[in-house]
Amino acid sequence: MMYHRHVKYAVLLLLLVGCGSSDAGDPLDGGAGDGGSSDARAGDDGALADAALRDDDRDGLDDARELALARDYLPFLALSPTDGCKVGGLLARVRPHPMSARCVLITYVHLFDKDCGIGGHDGDNEAFGVTVDPALPAPQGIRAVKAISHQGTLCERQSSCGDVGGLTACQTLMKGAVAWPALWSSRNKHGGYVNRTSSCTTFATCIDTCEDNTTAQAREIVNVGEPAQHLVSNLSTQGFITAANGWTSAGLMNYDPWGGQDFGGAGKVSEDLVDPAFVTPGCP
Q: Quick check: bond before 27 cis, omega within 30?
């Protein structure tokens, strides 16, 4: 009897040691402390996947962690205080950086209910890319930003900044007592610029005007997933583009960001999300 009791104690001790030896994980993997889902899912090989990882878009990152990164490392959005059509929000595609796996590449698409500048129309989409180093707190972890205003038109202008890839330092605006890399949206037309004083000027653009704002524009952010594994297919039933949120353009309701359709009178959001033009430099 004593022999069997000792065996049982030894087995129990081994189990406890095994349970206590799990690795906290990489900051990108949605491990301990990253707010990952507790849902267990089967991997492609039939083995049980990490119970802390919810990766429905199959890019190797925890989906909840992706949304947290998109929120935490969003540059200061400077929407003109006199903009006449401010209703909008952000889509985000978050994935491991193709040139630096320890960092993350986020492609944001800034959507607006209306473009109310010259030649105005329902819907507006302006994209920008951000390299994020999650090992550094925000805003230091914002390593590079690239915007392309009015992409695909005669008014297109590209601007980029950062501390990697030979880029010039980003212009900043203050959030509290901290300087944040900023992205300006031109008044009423919403073209994106990361260097207001040199790129967003009347003579450098198609009469775009950018203005500082003392408060960063608050925006809802939707994690849309990956081209082969979508996390959302209807921005109205998902709760983003709705009348309750101030959207008025009927043609934008029930929009599928991966569906390949124009966003009202603007471009195709699905093309923005996969456009290599928004790939910013990787981390050194």
A: no
